[in-house]
Design a protein that fits this description.
Largest sheet: 4 strands, mixed
Number of domains: 2
Helix content: 25-40%
Strand content: 15-25%
Strand order of the largest sheet: 3-1-2-4
Number of helices: 5
Shape: rod-shaped
């Protein structure tokens, strides 16, 4: 049974988040030449910290991994569900959107002054910031001005 979550501080400002029931055994596995974890094989351990003991949730490891990614950069942290040495573009895009949402920023453009429903970049095109009624009124005025121009009527 896994009962603690730990964070490894690694070389080159890298981090690894893991869970175990035996921290000493796990640290020795990470330091071993037979280590199958590409991240801790490439970046050696400088320090470690037990973060959560006992584990409070099934999501703790992933949540802590994401917290560290937000703090230190996605490219500098691995752990939980994010174990690939190089994450896919789609994985990075999803994480970035999730982090924007967590910070109450628009997930499309990163601004804080609106939500994604109101973002002009939501569909890749600029959406009008005026109502349909305002557009109709503008069109009516354009048509009226055109008719006045054609018939030489001054308004």
């Amino acid at each position: 049974m896994t009962n603690l979550i730990y964070a490894l501080e690694l070389e080159n400002n890298k981090w690894y988040i893991g869970k175990t029931s035996d921290i000493e055994l796990k640290i020795n596995e990470h330091k071993s030449k037979n280590n199958h974890n590409f991240w801790t094989y490439e970046y050696k351990i400088k320090n470690y910290e037990i973060i959560e003991n006992p584990v409070k949730s099934k999501f703790s490891e992933d949540n802590l991994t994401k917290e560290y990614m937000m703090k230190y950069g996605i490219e500098n942290v691995r752990g939980g569900s994010y174990l690939k040495f190089k994450l896919d573009e789609d994985e990075i895009k999803i994480l970035k959107r999730e982090f924007l949402h967590i910070e109450d920023k628009c997930v499309y453009c990163g601004d804080m002054d609106h939500h994604f429903f109101d973002c002009i970049f939501q569909y890749g095109t600029h959406q009008p910031e005026i109502s349909l009624l305002e557009i109709i009124v503008i069109i009516i005025h354009i048509i009226r001005d055109f008719i006045f121009f054609i018939f030489g009527i001054e308004n």
